[in-house]
Fold these 3 entries.
Entry 1:
Amino acid sequence: MSTVVADDYPTRVPNEPRIFRRPDPVVWGDAERRNGDVAAYARDGYVQRERAISVARVRECLSEIERIGADPAMADDPRVIREDGTQAVRSIFDVHLLSEAVWAAVEESGAIELAQEILGSDVTVHQSRLNYKPGFAGGAFYWHSDFETWHAEDGMPRPRACSASIALTPNREYNGPLMIMPGTQRFFVQTAGQTPDDFYNESLVTTGPTVGSPSEEAIAELGESHGIDLITGPEGSMTMFDCNALHASGGNITPTPRSNIFVVFNSVENGLTEPFAGTAPRPEYLARR
């Protein structure tokens, strides 16, 4: 008999969605009192570090990405997500397993140790991917909370997870950088609608609002009260952000590509259960169990 897990973050509701204060902490443990980066993370929902990895490591990772993208064996691999209607690569999942060089970059960045401090425990990789916004063809990622998806579709019980984004190219104001509403990590934003079966096949390529997206009214309310920070920085920089922070990124119609390694760390004390949306668990490359 499976264990029933209480749902403190109900979402995909049939009625009017609401915004409520998160009952769990943002920083788990006492690192906020000892570490300035962790204190900034607790306040804003994210923290940035420049020169987290070396120029040589950046070049090595870019070469690896070209190798993976050009590998004929990966042409029909479900872990390679292409922009809707084109052959342009949008994301490559399981990138930490596909490339030793990428994992070496994650280790060099200090992301693992920072995640352990924030989450107050050992960590495991919930998901990894390369987000690639090629010049002229990079699609947008609409406003969302990662935890809302991971809770509903993967069965992550609590928002005890964080994401490291490591820049392999400059993240400029004009080439689709990450946008975060600082402080929204402290609030859970319910969404409305029923989750279709195998919804990830659609959601991974969708650039606009869909099931799991907050309402325009909620986005406007939180944008007015919290503002929007544009996360830019040179190649080699790293941004750690909270799984519940509301974030998005615009499309890239410039000639300048934007590539980031993206690794999600989950606390080992926050193991996945059955999805709270009542659907079948997503594939392992999206949610490692």
Entry 2:
Amino acid sequence: MNPIPAPRKPMKLNPLSANPLVSILIPSYNQGQFIGDTIDSILQQDYRPIKIHVVDGASTDGTLDVLKSYGKIPELEWVSAPDKGVVDAVNKGFELLEGDICGIQSSDDMYLPGTIRSVVELFQQHEAAGLVYGDTVKVDSDGNEILRHHTGDFSLENLFKLKTWIPQPSAFFRREMLETCGGWNEAIPYAPDTDLWIRMAFRAQVIKSADFLSQRRMHDEQRDTQGEKIIRDYCLMIDQSPDIAASSPQIQRAARASKYLMKIRYNPTGSDWRNAWNRFRAGQISPELRDISGLLHDLLLPARRVLSAVKQTIAKPAANRHNKSSAPCSKP
């Protein structure tokens, strides 16, 4: 399933049934230590009917043993075969999805209790909604909470200005949206979820839940650690999007500025001066993003680090002299 060329007119969605089937897709590869928590977080939801589809890329760790341990639970189906990566796995999974409401859950992330029921209620309250999402809680590899932060309300402008974002673990969509938008784009393997959410947002209402809906596990093997590739694919997505090209000048400015904001967020070099430049460029393109205090902070931070290092260097000899002078005299 590839992206469908756009732009297209907004969709008119079919009415939901009283108890719609919710299908969850889990692309998987060598996450055997985590995938059981992911599946359990779905099976333990207080909403039915649900269906879980695991598309595994022929894992070589303990993933298949975990999947087999669930036996023949009718709510869980899984396949394991070589694929070309997560984008290929997700697109294969899209062909399997049933029901009216769908989600994509990473094999190392988890839903919070009550998430699916609350999402179904939001879709039922907002008949024009094609996409519903909420915030996510960051946890460490052991599931201990690191951070929870409420992002801003949804609008395309807020999305491009990074005042809100649509975390994949907390996003749900009407299956009909795939018929109009297509699947993940293989040309941008490090930004395919964001690309799909943007295509959906141009065609249907997006509702942001006030709740935290998922736990997002932070560890060294995450794709989020690939900052340069994420920036590359995000910028390519913005430049090639026919939806953005056909949007209002205000949205176009925000989208172009977002390329520089993403370079600040992921900053593969760690350079404060590079952050300052990217912040300046974002403000040039979209005046609403001008941030003088942030710019000054980025420019002055290297100088502060140098002064702090000099201060510590000067302080060390003084401390050593003090220690020598205050040491007790040895007895003759």
Entry 3:
Amino acid sequence: MFTVVIHALLLAFGLILPLGVQNVFVFNQGANQRMFKQALPVVVTASVCDTILIIVAVLGVSAVVAAFSFFQTLIFGIGFLFLAYMGFVTWKSEPSKTSLKEGMTVKAQILFAASVSLLNPHALMDIIGVIGTNSLLYSGKEKWIFTLVTISVSWIWFLFLAFAGKVIGKMDTNGKIMIWVNKVSACMIWGVALYMAKSILFH
């Protein structure tokens, strides 16, 4: 059982730690909201979306996706367009002009967090292709422990990310740090988009 927990921890952290669209958005909302609790809608939405995807992956959708290659091509195609747009939006975002004291409304946080969680093919392929596939190594109680640990990592990480954003936001009163964070994030997002384009062309 201990091996299952360690496996799930290492796998979940390995997938969720890299800076991606979802992480960037949660971090930015932590930085932009006046109070930490005002960033909780994005934390809860991102965590719930990941929870749903992980459960669906463990229940066997990963095997279906793996069996039909055109699903992967479709997901990567949609993902390229989505990430290319998200990179543009992130690059153009300038907190110093909009004030770090004004964050998104609850509705906007929920809708945007859901979109970057459920329409991000990189995350979908990670969860369905990696977590789903690895869950096939277990059955019964071990499989559900594996699932619960990966879900727990997601919730803890997003809480930490929003809190870290809040700390940086307090330090960055004029928005200069966040502008550079956005620029770097945009480049990374575009990098993932190009990787997906390559996957489609040379599949």
